[in-house]
Write a structure and sequence with these properties.
Strand content: 5-15%
Strand order of the largest sheet: 2-3-4
Distance between the termini: 19 Å
Structural class: alpha+beta
Radius of gyration: 27 Å
Helix content: 55-70%
């Protein structure tokens, strides 16, 4: 469930899930990848019982995601972060628009140079530079579109009804015992888990 998501704070490596068969059946556990690849001397992190780690983590996650107070705090935090990010991105937009205009000006000058018989330049002479400018312009326009999309994002409207609906939604997700659904759910919410 957490392979690649858990990070060892002792060495910075990811934990990797393993399974072993013993007299009592199949055992699942997580080990620091530094230990696996370089040996126990390279990192002193302990091996973790996968069932225990997953149970405790899912219980804490469920408690957090089914608490109206915690969800309200998360939405407020999200909205504040969105506002700050949009203020920063809003400053980037004019500079990006100026870059696009500059690229277009360079393209125009090259086309004018081709049309001007006195320069002696042919399309073949400037084709590599025109392609380079066209690629750069396409890249900058893509960045511009992404930035505009990010700037158009709206904050989440905080209402008691919305929070109650989210609590119901998360309770239903935690009630789903499907391992595949649970893994996808956790990986969509969790960036990393630090283990000390």
């Amino acid at each position: 469930l957490f392979s690649g998501l858990m990070e060892c704070v002792l060495c910075g490596a990811s934990f990797v899930g393993y399974a072993a068969h013993g007299s009592g059946g199949r055992y699942r556990y997580y080990r620091c990848n530094t230990q696996v690849s370089k040996g126990a001397e390279a990192c002193t992190q302990r091996t973790l019982n996968a069932d225990d780690v997953e149970r405790v983590f899912l219980e804490k996650l469920k408690t957090r995601l089914t608490s109206e107070h915690a969800l309200t705090d998360m939405v407020r935090g999200h909205n504040e972060a969105l506002k700050e990010a949009q203020a920063q991105r809003g400053k980037q937009l004019p500079a990006l628009e100026r870059e696009i205009v500059t690229i277009e000006r360079k393209q125009r000058r090259l086309f004018e140079a081709i049309e001007d018989a006195e320069t002696g330049l042919s399309k073949r002479d400037v084709a590599p530079r025109l392609r380079e400018l066209a690629d750069l312009k396409a890249q900058k326009e893509l960045e511009h579109d992404e930035l505009k999309t990010q700037l158009a994002a709206k904050p989440i409207k905080l209402s008691k009804q919305t929070i109650e609906e989210w609590v119901e939604f998360f309770e239903a997700l935690f009630a789903d015992e499907s391992a595949l659904a649970r893994k996808a759910f956790v990986q969509s919410l969790v960036v990393s888990v630090k283990i000390d």
